[in-house]
Design goal:
Elements (H helix, E strand, L loop, with lengths): L10 E6 L5 H5 L20 E2 L2 E2 H9 L5 E5 L4 H5 L15 H13 L7 E6 L7 H10 L5 E7 L4 E4 L5 E5 L5 E3 L3 E4 H20 L10 H7 L5 E4 L11 H12 L15 E15 L5 E2 L2 E2 L5 E2 L7 H13 L5 H4 L13 H13 L3 E10 L9 H12 L6 E6 L5 H4 L3 E13 L4
Parallel strand pairs: 1-4, 1-5, 6-11, 16-17
Antiparallel strand pairs: 2-3, 5-10, 6-9, 6-10, 7-8, 12-15, 12-18, 13-14, 16-18
Length: about 425
């Protein structure tokens, strides 16, 4: 593909990062009792191929616009976009339209406000270059343009009891995407009007319907909005399982010469790692396995919290990456790791995968003990491990077995764990 020509009109992009991602967050389990809480980043700050999702969204926009205005209040935003040629972030609002208005007002305050503006969701990191080009091209003759895809599935209207009440004709129905493009003065004026209407309604004790996207605002005001073809790759990160889809898309996309080399994806090859750990029981310690505290009369002896499951997983990951073992990264001779929550070790291992441009395909852990029974806690363990590694829980398997009363585990002197992981990583991930 040839490089895009410079925009004929001064163009800005709003990069929205103020969303709270309620649905994404609801599918991730918070830290279990007895383990140190790990702050869960919003969806746009999840790492994808070694970079935050929103950074990839910004990199997609930068070659096509004069400047990018990030919108969001999260302190992670500036860090995620560090080193990129973007404007300083401005705080977002409680709702999407509040955030868009805040971004538009920041652009209007520039010495030279733009003529055109793109509005893009920070949770759409894989928008193809041709989609942005097509939106900008159509803006030369339209005041509003959106990328969209025709609906291909049969649509059903369902009542609150889960009963189908009607089949909705799908003819002429399209799924809207971003970036949506507009005449900047027009969109700014309409958002100012919307804000004033909302304030008037609040004063009168009434409510007014709010548009779900910026194209709807133009439609309500009687302006035509054109549609260009979107892309199936331009998905929005909504649920944790979308991360796997996005990783596949990144792996399939050809490198784009307009992006930094650090943002480009190299071919991924499989790597396998094995881990093994064992800890003896000890009096007066909590029993923590895979980040979950389990009621038991004894805990496990060790320099850290002796989480035998997480230690085996760490060793498997480090082995797959040819990075030694857990002792190389967190030596037991160093007192700063004494009684440390092993969640920190697994977070480090996960970040190491992503820093090399890799992805965890799956992890399989077997715990070997007579007691306690692992089955009642296995799901909580899976969820905690998935949270720490920032992957869907479907990639994590945790199971248990006994040694039929043989050996030290059979005598209930301790617990052993074995782990196997599969990782996709670039051939030269050193």
């Amino acid at each position: 593909m040839t490089a895009p020509t410079a925009p004929r009109r001064r163009t800005a992009a709003l990069l929205l990062a103020a969303g709270r991602g309620r649905r994404f967050a609801s599918d991730l389990t918070s830290a279990q009792p007895g383990s140190a809480p790990t702050p869960q980043a919003s969806k746009q700050f999840q790492e994808l191929g070694g970079q935050p999702v929103i950074r990839r969204a910004a990199l997609a926009l930068l070659p096509f616009v004069d400047f990018v205005q990030p919108v969001g209040s999260d302190p992670l935003l500036a860090e995620a976009l560090g080193g990129l040629d973007v404007l300083p972030p401005v705080p977002g609002g409680a709702e999407r339209h509040d955030s868009v208005r805040a971004g538009l007002q920041a652009l209007a305050a520039l010495d030279e406000p733009p003529e055109l503006v793109l509005v893009h969701d920070g949770a759409r990191p894989c928008v193809p270059p041709h989609v942005i080009e097509d939106v900008l091209g159509a803006l030369q003759s339209h005041s509003g343009v959106i990328p969209a895809l025709p609906v291909s599935d049969t649509l059903k209207r369902v009542d609150e009891d889960g009963i189908i009440t009607a089949t909705v004709p799908r003819a002429h129905l399209w799924r809207a995407q971003t970036p949506q493009g507009f005449s900047f003065p027009l969109l700014h004026d309409l958002h100012c009007q919307l804000h004033q209407q909302a304030q008037d309604a609040l004063s009168a004790g009434t409510s007014s319907p709010l548009p779900t996207d910026d194209a709807a605002l133009l439609e309500q005001a009687g302006h035509e909005v054109a549609v260009v073809m979107g892309s199936e790759d331009n998905i929005k990160l909504t649920v944790p399982e979308d991360l796997m889809r996005l990783e596949r898309i990144l792996a399939d996309q050809a490198p784009d010469p307009k992006q930094d080399q650090s943002a480009q994806q190299r071919p991924l090859l499989p790597r396998v790692g094995l881990g093994y750990d064992v800890h003896a029981f000890a009096e007066g310690r909590k029993l923590i396995i895979c980040g979950v505290e389990i009621p038991h009369e004894k805990g496990l002896a060790g320099h850290s919290d002796a989480d035998v499951g997480l230690h085996a997983l760490c060793d498997a990951i480090y082995g797959a990456l040819a990075e030694g073992d857990i002792g190389r990264h967190f030596p037991p001779s160093d007192n700063k790791w004494r009684d440390m929550d092993s969640a920190r070790f697994l977070v480090h291992a996960g970040k190491l995968i992503r820093s090399k441009g890799g992805m965890l395909v799956n992890a399989d852990l077997t715990l070997i003990c007579e007691r306690p029974k692992i089955g009642p806690h296995a799901q909580a363990m899976r969820e905690r491990v998935a949270e720490l590694l920032q992957v869907p829980v479907g990639r994590i398997s945790i199971k248990a077995t006994t040694s039929e009363r043989l050996g030290f585990t059979g005598r209930e002197e301790g617990i052993a764990a074995t782990a196997a992981v599969s990782i996709m990583a670039p051939l030269d991930a050193d």
